[in-house]
Amino acid sequence: MTAAGSPGPIAALREIAFWLERGRAETHRVKAYRRAADVLSGLSAAEFAARARDHSWRDLAGIGPKTAAVIEQAEAGAVPDALADLRAAAEPIAPAGVELRKALRGDLHTHSDWSDGGSPIAEMMAVAAALGHEYCALTDHSPRLKVANGLSAERLRRQLDVVAELDERMAPFRVLTGIEVDILDDGTLDQDPELLDRLDIVVASVHSHLRDDSATMTTRMVHAVANPRVDILGHCTGRLVEGGRGTRPESSFDAELVFEACRRFGTAVEINSRPERRDPPGRLIELAVEMGCYFSIDTDAHAPGQLDWQGYGCERALAHGVEAARVIDTWPVGELLAWTAAPGR
């Protein structure tokens, strides 16, 4: 997202939230600005004008002193101080990855408020387009992950209708249908196969029983990777290296067998850009390169500001020998979708 002139109050509040998310601010700080933007969006034109005339923004539930100051300054035609400060302080993300980041055309792993993301689909996709992407896949969670409000088959069908309408409205930008589907204990996938066949992008990830023994985890992952419906193996080790959720060690599995299955069945290995994941570790990226795998550099974004985190993944990819031609989200959308749809790849 590029710095611009004076936005309106709603845009100013959302842009402040974007910069805070991008800078990994505490969730409660971000939510205050997004909540205030939602409150303003719900006002009629007449009520908005009356609040502006009376300077009575603080009387609205969800508007505090900081957000009211932003609204007042934006209404006066100025760039709010809070926004100006954030724009000025913004640093490039992972400068060493900038050339690969320029080559990326999309992001193939993102979440909305339909599962455990914090923002509506339309807002996520609008920010993806503003960041220069040509396409972005919506990959909310599957039903087993109840803690993340995973989508039942019925809810996913409804989401597909929403995405189809938004995709038409945002053309030529493409909103790709997708899912982050759980790999179940036996290696099968946590969603109706008929629905998976309808999706543009299927990211398969392990979210449960991450401490299973190596043989069990290897069998589970290879079975999923070999499934022709799977396009990307998500955050393969499941590790957490920092952040509010604490740390978590890597899952134990035979990476050579798993990556050989990825190569053989044409499943891309995700380089997850989330700072708390940095998954796979560098040595495994290098192994996947050596074995001839494809890659997908994704944000796993759960909020609009996190969509700018791809540079972290690009920096790590370049440091460990990944070439742009092997990264599927550098491909034009037609080539990408032809690849995901190809039987046997």
Share in β-strands: 5-15%
Tally of DSSP helical segments? 14
DSSP summary, beta strand count: 8
Instruction: Indicate the CATH class of the largest domain.
Output: Alpha Beta
Q: Which residues sit in consecutive blocks of at least 5 with pLDDT less than 50?
A: none
Structural commentary:
With 345 residues, this protein is α/β, with parallel strands linked by helices. The protein has two domains: 9-89, DNA polymerase, domain 1, CATH 1.10.150; 95-341, Metal-dependent hydrolases (TIM Barrel). The protein has helices spanning 9-22, 27-41, 45-54, 65-75, 81-89, 98-103, 121-130, 153-170, 193-198, 214-225, 255-265, 282-290, 310-319, 333-341, and strands at 106-107, 135-137, 174-176, 178-182, 201-205, 232-233, 268-272, 295-298. A five-stranded parallel beta sheet has the order 4-5-6-7-8, with helices on one face. Strand 6 (232-233), helix 11 (255-265) and strand 7 form a beta-alpha-beta unit. Helix 1 (9-22) runs antiparallel to helix 2, helix 1 packs across helix 4 and helix 1 runs parallel beside helix 5 (81-89). The longest helix is centred in the middle third of the chain and has 18 residues, at 153-170. The protein is elongated. The mean pLDDT is 96.
